[in-house]
Design brief:
Rossmann fold; DNA polymerase, domain 1; 2 domains; 7-stranded mixed sheet; two-stranded antiparallel ribbon; 9 strands; 41% helix; disordered C terminus; metal ion binding
């Protein structure tokens, strides 16, 4: 671990999904190459290249892949077709090639045991997010789940982070966000929240050490241990799922 968590009460925690709780690189790899094949392009994109594009939503992912694989005119004219092909492929394989990272379940158990409110905020679309959380047995841990299409704005915009604090009835300064990328750190910082980052995720292919987190933690369980001295239960929303998560 490097860095420290600044002093102050912690009443709620926001946790990212892809690259933070779940390694979904295999699903992205399969769905993107199925999309390329449907477009008549060579389905030969590596998982390493694909995860460098992950983190800003499906539209951005598809756009980046098309820009890398097709001439500019085709990348623009075939975007809608490609996005549809990608979404159909992803829904078909969602959760097939994923793994929950070590320490995630232990971390969630620990945070829940502290009486803290938990939210999952991800740029992943609702139709991918909810089935995956349910399939992996992670959904019951969360009071709120805000997918990437829940609001007009997504990370790195602070909007969904602020909506979490509002829903829980806590100050933004009483919330800690945990993620794997600059998107997570920027959104949390702009909202006035503290930030922890895990080093094993995606972060657009860049070292997470430069993302601007207060501390880098080895796992979600390590994050929970760092939060423990600051844990101060007192949110006003308890075990109620958001309309956006239904």
């Amino acid at each position: 671990m490097t860095g420290v968590l600044p002093a102050g009460p912690v009443r709620a925690v926001i946790i990212d999904l892809d690259g933070t709780m779940v390694d979904t690189a295999g699903d992205f790899h399969a769905a993107i190459n199925a999309m390329l094949e449907a477009l008549g392009a060579a389905p030969d994109m590596s998982a390493q290249e694909i995860v460098g594009y992950v983190g800003k939503g499906s539209e951005n992912l598809v756009r980046r892949v098309l820009d890398a694989r097709l001439p500019p005119a085709q990348a623009n004219s075939r975007f809608a077709e490609a996005l549809d092909a990608y979404q159909r492929a992803y829904i078909a394989i969602n959760g097939r090639y994923v793994n929950v990272y070590d320490g995630v379940r232990e971390g969630l158990d620990t945070l829940r045991g502290m009486g803290l409110a938990l939210a999952c905020v991800t740029n992943k679309p609702h139709d991918f997010t909810q089935p995956l959380l349910a399939q992996l047995g992670l959904a019951p841990y969360f009071d709120l789940v805000y997918p990437g299409d829940a609001f007009p704005y997504r990370k790195p915009d602070p909007y969904p982070m602020l909506r979490v604090a509002e829903a829980f009835g806590v100050r933004a300064t009483d919330v800690v966000a945990i993620g794997d990328s600059e998107n997570d750190a920027r959104a949390a910082r702009a909202a006035g929240m503290r930030v922890l980052a895990v080093p094993y995720g995606y972060n657009h292919g860049q070292p997470v050490q430069a993302a601007g987190a207060d501390a880098i933690v080895d796992s979600l369980f390590a994050a929970a241990q760092l939060i423990r001295p600051h844990a101060t239960p007192g949110h006003t929303m308890h075990r109620a799922m958001s309309a956006a998560s239904n």
